[in-house]
Amino acid sequence: MATAQLYCVCRQPYDVSRFMIECDICKDWFHGSCVEVEEHHAVDIDVYHCPNCDAHHGPSLMKKRRNWHRHDYTEPDDGSKPVQAGTSVFVRELQARTFPSGDEILQQMHGSQVTQRYLERHGFRYPIAVHKMEELGLRLPPPDFSVKDVERYVGGDKVIDVIDVARQADSKMKLSAFVKYYYSPQRPKVLNVISLEFSDTKMSELVVVPDIAQKMSWVENYWPDDSYFPKPFVQKYCLMGVKDSYTDFHIDFGGTSVWYHVLWGEKVFYLIKPTPANLALYEEWSSSPNQSEVFFGEKVDKCYKCVVRQGTTLLIPTGWIHAVLTSQDCMAFGGNFLHNLNIGMQLRCYEMERRLKTPDLFKFPYFEAICWYVAKNLLETLKESRDDNCLPPVYLIKGVKALITALRNWLTPAVTEPSSEVPDHIRPSHLIKMLTKEIQYLEVSHTLMKSQGISACPSTRSAHERRSHARRTARRLRDQDHHHSHSPKAPSNLDIFEQHTQEVLKRLEMGPNEEDASLNLKFNKVSTASAAVAERSLDNDLRLVLCNGQPNNAGEHFRVVCVCVCLKCTGLKLNHICSESATSPSTEEDAIQGMLSMAGLLYSHPIQEHKNFMDSQGSGSNSSSEAWSSHTHSPAHGESPTLGYQYCETSLSPPLHPSKRPASNPPPISNQATKGKRPKKGMATAKQRLGKILKLSRHKPFFVLAIFGPLLPPRGHLETDFKWCLKGSFK
After folding, report:
1. Mean per-residue pLDDT, 509-530
2. Which residues of 286-405 form beta strands (DSSP E)?
3. What residue spans of 183-303 are helical by DSSP H?
4. Going by C-beta distance under 8 Å and a sequence separation of 6 or more, which residues neighbour residue 711?
5. In b/e form, how buried is each residue of 148-171, taking b as 16+ CB within 10 angstroms?
């Protein structure tokens, strides 16, 4: 390998991380730290002479100032060019402007009121001011904490980003150099430090962020310890600015919310609402070539002025456009955090940064990675809400929808960048599919759950709260079981119906000689009081009302695979929707076979044609534990030939869709439901078969009703089909 070229008086190779300046005489390059030239000073040098050339050619030549209102102060001051942001003329004009008072939009609150529960209920849409930091859970150094103390805790050799306010340009310098500048009697420039993140320093031990920022932070709640990407540290910033420091209008990276606390000094915030119109104007202004010459506050309807004095904490929500003026020397602490309340706005701000081609230095670190982690956790949150039969808050549903759209866009080839931020252990397409499935599920059940009076449930719970909730639930269930074991109660209609189902299924598994000639709904195993209640209930037409997949009496979950109802005993009446024409045995077999396969019942052909089907008075069934398909039974006088079916346990794996199950009895070609038509897919096929079996069961002493799917209705129209087909005393 060739020997690397050496530079500077230190004779070291080129280091991209260190500032260097070229000598205009010898053309050699020198490290600024080696020749005592700061980066922000280099722009003021017109002709630079290195230490070697300085002895022969004299000192370096400096640029001459010709104006006070332009970033390039060497431009002629002929009055033809407008004032640019950050210059001394701009600051004087800004202080002379009048603005609407920030009290119009500022929420004055006690720190104890700013809780996660409050923000989830009322939203986090306007800035909040708190005057006592202790109530926020915020802990900071004492008010006499100085810039020198910062150097002592952080270290003077730490390289920090410094803004040259008059040029609105960023440069780097050591913290010790900034401290020297800060305490110098004559400050040749206005320098501002706003991005000193100190989480990895000793000063971090002196600062505890507000409770609300800690509890709601995506990074704190969702970032895994074993992540391949380094954890973002954006919660602890120290801001040190001298008088007349100015930061032009901006939105904090990734649409993060911000907390600011002025330890000493004073800052003035100019706040603009993140309305769609204002955001569109902001993007247009940010991409314009003359951005620094236009004061954005004049382009919007209202720009509010908010003065933040010593000891005050300001919380700024997602997306608020703001500029900051340091009216006197000031030290402040602050931090940024992403959260669940404004996911859509956060993503919109990030997409705006992408369109504006914002450098990575000024973007939230690994924003896309944290979104994937959040998506994975919110999927579990939605599943927990479904298991608890409660509806997540509207803001969370909207946020997940926006997140799904963003994640899907990031996976498209046109958008995907070479350095993908998809975590290795996450299957992105599967995750998006599952989130979409949960959202569709919520949309179907939203109206029904509201009609039942089921309110939204807490969406974000800490691990401790979840464990406490689980313990309380287990204790409540244990107490209920103990109470029930000592004080039996009369069974409800649902209990009677379930017991009847089990009894009928047992009878179906027995031989014909072991079962009674007719079915009844009296159970020998229940108490006398229970039996009496059962008789009264059945005499008055048993009603089973399903609302959104659960019975009308709260607390009883209906998880039934197959229900057999005795029509004669219950007196159920089916609305004659289907035509009165006779149905062929093959159609009957196909319909029942399809429904029983969905209900978890095995079906086989009848051996004999049942010619007297319409005149039958009873029913029987043939079953055998070994060779069911080879067993035959000749109906006795007065009986009707029966269709063979056998109850089988449903596996824990998701049931196959009817269109994907292997049919043990393929439908004949003469099937009228499909003759001349292309078979439909999905729930349409289930609907056809459901209509057939209900039609066929009009004249039977019992019929089989298959109820399948999750606790709440599936995404099809199954519940609608039930209401369409079943009327009267059964809904």
Report:
1. 42
2. 304-309, 313-316, 321-337
3. 211-216, 218-222, 276-286
4. 389, 549, 550, 557, 558, 559
5. eebbebbeeebebebbbbbbbebb
Q: Which residues contact 675 (CB under 8 A, 6 or more apart)?
A: 669
Nearest-angstrom CA–CA distance, 282 and 289: 13
The secondary structure of residue 142, as a DSSP letter, is -
pLDDT per residue as tens digits for the range 283-313: 999 999 999 999 999 999 999 999 999 999 9
Tokens for 471?
């313990």
Residue 468 has pLDDT above 80, yes or no: no
- Over residues 559-576, the pLDDT tens digits come to 333 343 333 333 333 333
Cα pseudo-dihedral 207, 211, 215, 218, rounded to 10? -50
313: exposed, middle or buried (Cβ count in 10 Å: 0-12, 13-18, 19+): buried
Strand partners, 162: 171
For the residues 125-129, what does the mean pLDDT come to? Answer: 97
Phi and psi angles of residue 72, each rounded to the nearest 5 degrees, phi first: -95, 100
Inform me whether the pLDDT recorded for 713 exceeds 80: no
C-alpha to C-alpha distance for 221 and 188, rounded to whole angstroms: 45
Q: What is the pLDDT of residues 137-149, one digit of tens each?
A: 999 999 999 999 9
d(CA 606, CA 627): 14
Residues with Cβ within 8 Å of residue 121, at least 6 apart in sequence: none
**Alpha-carbon span 217 to 370, nearest angstrom:** 11
pLDDT of residue 329: 97
Residues 6+ apart with CB under 8 A from 457: 385, 388, 390, 391, 392
CA distances from 76 to 64, 73, 81, 459, 581 (A): 11, 8, 9, 60, 99
First to last CA, the chain: 85
Predicted confidence (pLDDT) per residue in 403-441, tens digit: 999 999 999 865 555 557 899 889 999 999 999 999 988
Count of other CB atoms within 10 angstroms of residue 633: 18
pLDDT at 3 over 50: yes
State both tokens at 644. 């063979």
Q: Which of 673, 150, 101, 124 is nearest to 395 (CA)?
A: 124
The DSSP secondary structure of 528-592, one letter per residue, reads: HHHHHHHHHHHHT-----EETTEESSTT-----SEEEEEHHHH-------S-SS---HHHHHHHH
| pLDDT tier, 389 (very low <50, low <70, confident <90, very high otherwise) | confident
Rg, Å, the chain Cα set? 38
b vs e for 677-686, b when ≥16 Cβ sit within 10 Å of the residue's Cβ?
A: eeeeeebebb
Would you list the DSSP string of 474-492? HHHHHHHHHHHHHS-----
Closest CA to 523 of 541, 509, 538: 538
**287 token code pair:** 């991409």
Whether the per-residue pLDDT at 543 is higher than 90: the answer is no
Q: Cα–Cα distances in Å, from 555 out to 33, 287, 551, 558, 562? A: 74, 58, 8, 10, 21
8 Å CB contact between 10 and 31: yes
Which residues on adjacent β-strands are paired with residue 257? 337
Helix/strand/coil for 314:
strand
**Which tokens sit at 525?**
């195993």
- How far, in whole angstroms, is CA 565 from its chain's centroid? 44
Mean residue pLDDT across the chain: 74
Cα separation, 455 vs 474, in Å, equals 22
Q: What angle do CA 107, 111, 114 make, to 5 degrees?
A: 65
Please tell me which residue, 593 or 275, carries the higher pLDDT value. 275
Tokens at residue 714, please? 């599936």
pTM summary value: 0.64
DSSP string, 495-529: HHHHHHHHHHHHHHHS-TTTS-SS-----TTS-HH
Is 421 within 8 Å of 481 (Cβ atoms)?
no
